[in-house]
Amino acid sequence: MASTTPISQSQSLFKQPKLAASASLSPASLPKSSLSYWNRTCPKKLIGAPPMRAVASSTAAAAEKEKKRYPGEAKGFVEEMRFVAMKLHTRDQAKEGEKPSDAPPVGKWEPSVDGYLRFLVDSKLVYDTLEDAEFKNTGLERSGKLAKDLEWFREQGYTIPEPSFPGLTYAQYLKDLSEKDPQAFICHFYNVYFAHSAGGRMIGKKVAEKILNNKDLEFYKWDGDLSELLQNVRVKLNKVAESWSREEKNHCLEETEKSFKHSGEILRLILT
Prior knowledge:
mainly alpha, Heme Oxygenase, Chain A, 12 helices, about 0% strand, globular, disordered N terminus, chloroplast, metal ion binding, metal-binding, heme, transit peptide
């Protein structure tokens, strides 16, 4: 039911000197004669409400707490990607790993040359796709190096196989992302190149010991200081992500598991 109090009467109440000069608008600060009016008109949620300064402080604290939910954010988005990726490693792969291990350690692998060739061919197809898209001339490119390695195998009398399902599937997926989903594509770009520079090199060394008489393939060599090349790419990736919203960044991070899935399927070709 609408209030029957005339507008002129309501206005006169807010002009009373006692109310205007009151330091704290609460029942305790009002004359007894005004309490009945207070109880009728003041919203109950205002009674005993904290000062505005306390509300602002609480809001700021909540915002700060929300910001801390993204590990690595203070160091740049690449660190966020690294944190998520490390969690998907097993404990024997990285101390930060949380994923249960369902495969023997690399040192106990029994690779074959045929399987390794399938791995190299599918890997080249993936790098071809990545290097046709963005971030050209980073110094991390692997496609040309892999071409030299495959030519070496050919010279040794091995038949180079055609790309197989894992490589074809991943390459097509990357091509689609590069055209339609730049945030997701960056996640794969980061994980493929940075994983190869770390765990990939270790795997290559172990495989070479077992089946290649310690042959040092071009796939595991870089022109220039690798740590410097990686740092330059970190800077570029962080720069790109500066313009992304939090939602876009989270979308990129959510793609990490798919990157691990596709890369893992290609890696397992070594054991076939």
